[in-house]
Amino acid sequence: MTPNKQTVNEYMAAFMVSDHERILACLTDDVIWEMPGIYQHVGKEAFDKEIENDNFVGSPTIQIIKLIEENDIVIAEGAVQGNMKNGNKLDAVFCDVFEMENGKIKKLTSYLMSKNANLKFE
């Protein structure tokens, strides 16, 4: 497994246990996390605040279905489940595009689609 894929796997594993220190160790200082049309967070501090989103309780369950790399881009396709504070359950599929720099995540673009058509993310 390449160093970039190892970083993405570590990032996902750390996210499933909400381990901020491990997650942040996978990122460049000027990291960008974007969900087009929803948000864009710039820098580790902003990223850190989103790790445990106010709309959710506990840590998510994440399954990686595909992990593909070309040059310094890693694409992860998978599924995620989580519990929301309003009592709803998140059951979604995702495609995350990781732009890497020196083995760390420089930019993450997340595309997320709920399997429940009535569920709102906000």
TrEMBL record:
Domain of life: Bacteria
A matching Pfam family: SnoaL_2
Listed InterPro entries: NTF2-like_dom_sf, SnoaL-like
SUPFAM superfamilies membership: NTF2-like
Matches recorded under CDD domains: NTF2_like (cd00531)
Sequence ranges assigned to domain SnoaL-like in this UniProt record: 8-106
Protein's recorded name: SnoaL-like domain-containing protein
Originating species: Flavobacterium panici
